[in-house]
Structures are given as C-alpha cells and as structure tokens.
C-alpha cells in the first residue's frame, strides 16, 4: 500500500508497540480498540524502539507507528527560552505525547527526537498528580501541547477532553489557579463544541498564510479550516488565542501576511480574543543541524539563518521587519497590549 507520501510502506499505525508495563492500563486498552487490525508488538521500554540508532526521521514519519508507554521521572519542565510565557508567572510545559501527525518542514521535533514515531504516554494520571502537588505551592501556567498537536489526535488519545476536565476540577472554587494552553493547527471545531467551556483552558490556534501552509506545513488543515475551528472554540465559550508564530519568510511575505490578516479578521471578532502572538522562526543550533541533514531539499530549514547565542533565527533586520510588519497589521484589529511579540 502507498503511504501518505505515495511510497510503498505500511500505512500509519499498522504496528503498535506497547510497553509491557503499560499493556493493562485502561488508556492503552481504550486506544487499542481504535486499531483493531494493527499488529501489536510488546516491548520492554519505549526507548528500545524510539531511541534506536540510525533511524531516518523523515522516512519513518511518512509511515508513522504508534508507541504506548508509561513516562517516569520528570513530568513537568520549566518553560523553554524559545517559548512565550504571555506574561504569566510559573510557566511550565509538559509532554504527554511525543511527535505529531502533521508534518511541518520547520518543526523542531525533527531536530529533537531520534524517531518519527508517535509516543503516547498512557499514565496521564501521574502527570495530573504531579501538577496537583505543584499547585499546592503556587498557581501555574502550563503548555500541554508543545511537542505534539493534542487536538489533532483527539480521536485516538482523548487527551484534550481529559485536560479540560482536570483544569475544571483544579479551578473549581479557586479560579485562575491553573491555566493551560492547548496549541493546535487542527480544524476540528466539533471537538470544542463537544466540551463544556473552561476559562482556564486557552485554545491557541496557529495560523499561517495559505502559501506557507502549502509550501511547508504538510498534512495540516488549510487556513480557512483553522479559522473555522477558532470560530467554533469561541462560539463554545473557550478563551481563544491566535498564534502567528512561526512567521516564515517567503519572497512575497508582506502580501501573504497582509491578506492572511484580512482573511482572519473578516471572520474572527478580534475583541473576543484573549490575545495574539507574533514570532518569527527560531530554533536551537543543535536541532537545526540535524534538520538540515534530514531535509536537504527544504528551503525553510536551509535558509541562511543567523546564529544568535546558540539559536538560529532570521537576520535581526529581517526578523524585526517581518514581526513589526505583522504586529502593525494586527494592531488594526487587536489592542496593542494584547499583541505579544516573542523576546529572547
Ligand atoms: S503542527 Fe506543530 S508539532 Fe505538529 S508538525 Fe507542525 S510544528 Fe510540529
């Protein structure tokens, strides 16, 4: 059978690797019911498969397999310097899933992970217990969909619904104690309408001009579809953030980003958004080095970026010009104090 890229490989999720210790977990059993024809392979530890040497991320990602495992050790991390805190204190992120079903050429996961396979950690309850312990000390702002796109795999994992209910429980009678961001490119508006809204859950939609989506955000929904999902989340009563991040350089970037802005605000009521973010592409030097080996034909990763303190980014004048241009366009719709620009 041809895979999504037209090659002769097994279809996605034809094989599912299951850690022996995770085999009887209710989440494992629920997920496996979604794949009645998959071949199940028992493994001792997810790293035996995920961290093997000599894997080809790009080829593997085109015929992605699923690994179900339990995460041990550190479950919460302090917010990374390349990520925006939106002015929140106690900024953390967590990774209950590794890798993504979408295939953005510029995605740092290609530089970070040795494998293109998707890992779902089934012990979400352990993450929740760790967060509760932390919340006993202080409130938290937590990004839960960074190293994946949780909404895109909701039919498989069901984790968006679980996070929303967890936040609701933590904030009951103590509003604002826990705020999470669920960042996505998914077009599944029905997901948000199927869930009761919760003020502590920010639905953050990453939007790009259609030309950028066509060029390098492979297998992702169109701009129009993503706008539709953001409309649905707003209508359902969730706080909504729009992320114009990463901005990607292309030769007609001004007109691309200008017409995207008009398209977005012809449908989205700007005054209903909690905020918007703007940031151009940036990445650690180690990740970009590996991505350049993986994707020799990708214009977006082969761009002659400038290394600033271990992070590659567009040359400062171009970065400033791109971000300022978009921020000015957005300021025609959104109050300036609700426009966040990434700062190193
Ligand atoms: S949607 Fe996000 S996590 Fe998924 S491939 Fe694209 S950049 Fe990576």
Verbal overview:
The protein is of the alpha/beta class and 344 residues long. It has one domain (15-341): pyruvate-formate lyase- activating enzyme (Alpha-Beta Horseshoe). The protein is built from 14 helices and 18 strands. It has helices at 26-33, 46-50, 57-61, 109-112, 124-135, 154-157, 159-171, 189-193, 210-216, 223-236, 253-265, 285-294, 299-302, 316-331, and strands at residues 15-19, 39-43, 66-69, 77-78, 91-93, 97-98, 103-104, 118-121, 140-143, 178-184, 201-206, 217-218, 240-247, 275-280, 282-284, 306-308, 311-313, 339-341. The protein has an eight-stranded mixed beta sheet. Strands 2-1-3-8-6 form a five-stranded mixed beta sheet. Strands 15-17-16 form a three-stranded antiparallel beta sheet. 44% of the residues are buried. The structure holds iron/sulfur cluster.
Biggest sheet, strands in spatial order? 4-5-9-10-11-13-14-18
The CATH topology is given as: pyruvate-formate lyase- activating enzyme
The figure for the number of domains is: 1
Q: Regarding CATH, which class?
A: Alpha Beta
Tell me which ligands are bound: iron/sulfur cluster
Counting H and I runs of at least 4 residues, what is the number of helices? 14
Tell me the major beta sheet.
8 strands, mixed
Q: Could you give the distance between the termini?
A: 46 Å
Alpha carbon gyration radius: 20 Å
